[in-house]
From TrEMBL:
Signal peptide: 1-15
UniProt-annotated location(s): Periplasm
GO terms of molecular function: lyase activity
Species in which this protein is naturally found: Paludibaculum fermentans
Domain of life: Bacteria
Coiled-coil features, chain-numbered ranges: none
Annotated keywords: Lyase, Periplasm, Signal
Gene Ontology CC terms: periplasmic space
InterPro entries hit by this protein: Alginate_lyase_dom, Chondroitin_lyas, Hepar_II_III_C
Protein name: Heparinase II/III family protein
Annotated Heparinase II/III-like C-terminal domain residues: 385-538
Primary subcellular site in the record, as a coarse category: periplasm
Pfam family, one: Hepar_II_III_C
Length: 756
């Protein structure tokens, strides 16, 4: 670690800004300041401090909170479970407007005030170095010096207000929050410390920074978002005070930056906790650590893994720019993190980041560390995508915006939900199949609903939640207009096998959910589907039904039942669009409808449940995206693994079994599209390969398009009597005619007539 020592030996006692900005950065930002509204807003915030802070929190005058802060997740209405809203000293429930005070509510406001104070030091410091106005530095010094006095007097306390616990902190109630408070505070201090006296600098560094470092290093959280923030704060402190041990711990220590790059980022790129919210929560400290190391001249080749963290959300995003709210996550909008893609473009030059980076012009971080200029790039169409290590699949088709997101991977640690094989979906500009995501962790429904199996679009066994488990990918097929996946739930229910197969097309998605008990005994199997909107179907929900009052079932409201022995369909509509759910009946089945909870506790989300008591069963469902009315008139299974989908001139045949699948889409008896995998020959296509292939016939039959990965081997015979042109992946290939057939890719076609 001689390189760290050499760097620290060159650090003067009162250095110019250097650890997140250096002289060149300041010059660059100054040169662009007149064209950057965000800089003008920054200066305005500096001018308005502390008056704006005092007004926002309903204070008589500015002062630090005299007590340690509380846990952000405790800021909820105890009656409705909704997050409170702080308005000029009032903590209002958004449901009934009641104002709450006392512990822990007021202490959460202390957390907010401390966070705003740290951000103010950063903003004031930036305003000072950009304008040279001494009053901004004086304001920053006022906050810094106040914490110098207060910090060592605060007891170490945790989220439950217990003293001297390992996770506890002083200003905040947990080391995670202490670290995220420290980073902007140290950033701002670095910008103004040359205006402070030696006594002030020594006092702040000793009372706050070194004291805080002891607390953070005493709670190494290993593989976690917590430790990523700890590392970021420790690196900032180490570089600021010249402590090589802290720098080494932050980068190379157990749980350090390099460890997080290796262990916490899955090989596919998503953060290991399986939550897009925590993914971006972890992006922030990792990105700041990279920026600090760069300015300190510290080589971090491990930082290359950071690029995968930026790539992964682009692979899983819905068409409206949101990400599935799996595990402990809300509906994350990628645009909210556009700043990271501006910074990412500067780091890696990846043109895929440009569309998002263009949305980041109003973000302060973009001005500080983002790209100076962005090129013009053509949009890239999203395709079906699989991240097998993270256990995420996104099924897309080129014809429309119908998307299915599938979750089957690792549980996700403490932020995981018991929902293996669940799905979310999107259609016609709106979320369809719903996931509750997460409420504040102190809200009662977080543990009793958000995490429960029945709250998700999967199967619950015997009204109990799944165990924490890792699923397994069994098959994956991706073509331009179809995708298929087969996955198992692993040990989600010991002794019960859960396996799900999804076949996604432009017109519908086939869902086959197989459940089998190894003990040979009958079990309750509850197939669950939640969808935003309202139920508008033809079934009569006139049978009362009693459900468990445990494991999330207690949150299912107004349950009513109908027989499920016959095939059934039901519409869940959002205004003029929605989803039609078709299911093939079973003698041992009943169908239950009602409402459950959604991401907004005040907006119920309807559900459909198919309940069966059996040793083994297959739930065969079809999800049909709908605009004005249903398109599918009949969904049936004439034989095992065979399915028919008929309606409005459409006559489709589907065959699905392990290792083999085919979908033939016909309109008025004419083939339009064929998808094959594991099958070499049908009445319409004969070949020597069994790799996945898509065949498209044009409306007039004159053109046939083939799509596949790899090369076309040997002879391919297509039933296409009018075809004059055959293309493979968009490129024309040799075509010869032989009665109703067209032959392609034969080296010895001389005895056949050309297609033209």
């Amino acid at each position: 670690m001689a390189w760290i020592l050499l760097f620290l030996m060159t650090l003067p006692a009162a250095a110019e800004p250097r650890f997140l900005l250096n002289r060149a950065d300041v010059a660059r930002i100054k040169a662009q300041a007149s064209a950057q509204p965000v800089v003008q807003r920054l200066i305005q915030r500096a001018e308005n401090w502390p008056a704006a802070h005092v007004e926002n929190y309903g204070l008589k005058e500015w002062a630090l909170p005299a007590e340690g802060a509380g846990w952000s997740h405790a800021y909820v209405c105890p009656v409705h479970g909704a997050r409170l809203k702080q308005t000029r000293g009032q903590n209002l429930c958004p449901v009934d407007g009641k104002d709450y005070h006392g512990w822990p509510v007021d202490n959460v406001v202390y957390m907010q005030r401390n966070g705003d104070n740290a951000a103010a030091v950063r903003d004031l410091g930036l305003a000072y170095v950009l304008t040279g106005r001494a009053e901004f530095a004086a304001k920053a010094r006022r906050i810094v010096n106040a914490y110098t006095v207060l910090y060592p007097t605060l007891p170490i306390h945790d989220n439950n207000n217990k003293l001297n616990t390992q996770s506890g902190a002083r200003v905040m109630s947990q080391t995670l929050s202490e670290a995220s408070w420290l980073v902007p505070l140290v950033f701002g201090y670095d910008l103004v410390r040359d205006t402070m006296t030696a006594e002030e600098r020594i006092g702040f560094e000793r009372s706050v920074l070194k004291n805080a470092a002891v607390i953070l290093t005493g709670n190494n959280r290993g593989k976690s978002n917590w430790q990523s923030w700890h590392n970021c704060a420790l690196l900032a402190i180490g570089l600021t005070v010249g402590d090589q041990d802290l720098v080494r711990a932050a980068l190379d220590g157990p749980g350090g930056f390099k460890f997080q790059m290796r262990e916490s980022i899955t090989p596919d790129g998503p953060w290991f906790e399986g939550s897009w919210g925590y993914h971006f929560f972890s992006v922030e400290p990792l990105m700041l650590s990279i920026e600090m190391a760069k300015r300190a001249g510290l080589a971090l080749p491990e930082a290359a893994a950071f690029r995968k963290m930026l790539d992964a959300p682009l692979r899983a995003v819905f068409p409206d720019g949101t990400l599935p709210n799996f595990n402990d996550s809300g509906l994350v909008k990628l645009a909210a993190y556009a700043k990271h893609y501006s910074i990412g473009y500067r780091m890696f030059g990846d043109s895929r980041y440009v569309p998002l980076a263009r949305q980041a012009s109003s973000d302060l971080e973009t001005v500080l560390w983002g790209a100076d200029a962005l090129p013009e790039v053509a949009p890239v169409a999203a395709v079906s995508d699989l991240m097998p290590d993270a256990g995420l699949a996104t099924l897309r088709v080129r014809e429309n915006d119908h998307v299915i997101a599938v979750k089957f991977g690792p549980h996700g640690g403490g932020h995981g939900h018991f929902d293996k094989l669940t799905i979310n979906s999107y259609w016609n500009g709106a979320q369809q199949a719903a996931d509750p995501g997460t409420q504040a962790y102190a809200a009662p429904t977080h543990a009793t609903w958000d995490k429960m199996t029945i709250a998700h679009n999967t199967v619950s066994v015997d009204e109990k939640p799944q165990a924490a488990a890792t699923g397994k990918l069994l098959e994956w097929i991706a073509l331009p207009s179809a995708a298929a996946i087969r996955v198992s739930a692993g040990d989600a229910y010991p002794g019960v096998e859960l396996e799900r197969t999804l076949v996604h097309t432009p017109w519908y998605t086939l869902d086959l959910f197989d459940v089998k008990a190894a003990d040979g005994k009958q079990h309750h199997f509850d197939w669950m589907y939640h969808n935003y909107g309202q139920i508008f179907g033809d079934l009569r929900w006139d049978q009362a039904i009693g459900l468990s009052r445990l494991n999330g079932y207690q949150h299912l409201s107004h349950p009513a039942a109908n027989r499920g022995d016959a095939d059934w369909s039901e519409i869940i509509r959002q205004q003029q669009l929605g989803t039609v759910v078709h299911m093939i009946g079973s003698p041992e089945s009943i169908v239950i409808a009602g409402t459950g909870l959604g991401p907004d506790l005040q907006v119920p989300v309807p559900f459909l449940m198919a309940r069966r008591q059996a040793v083994s069963t297959r739930f065969s469902a079809l999800y049909e995206p709908m605009t004005q009315g249903g398109y599918v008139l009949q969904f049936s299974s004439p034989a095992p693994n065979e399915f028919l989908v008929n309606g409005a001139g459409m006559n489709d045949r589907i065959h699905v079994e392990p290792g083999r699948f085919s979908v033939l889409h016909q309109v008025f008896g004419k083939p339009v599209q064929l998808f094959l995998s594991g099958i070499a020959e049908t009445e319409l296509l004969k070949r020597s390969q069994t790799t996945p292939i898509q065949v498209d016939w044009s409306a007039d039959g004159a053109t046939v398009d083939l799509f596949m990965e790899g090369t076309l081997e040997g002879a391919v015979r297509i039933t296409a009597p009018a075809a004059k042109l055959i293309r493979l992946n968009g490129k024309k290939i040799e075509c010869r005619a032989n009665g109703p057939y067209r032959w392609a890719s034969l080296p010895n076609l001389g005895n056949l007539e050309p297609c033209q």
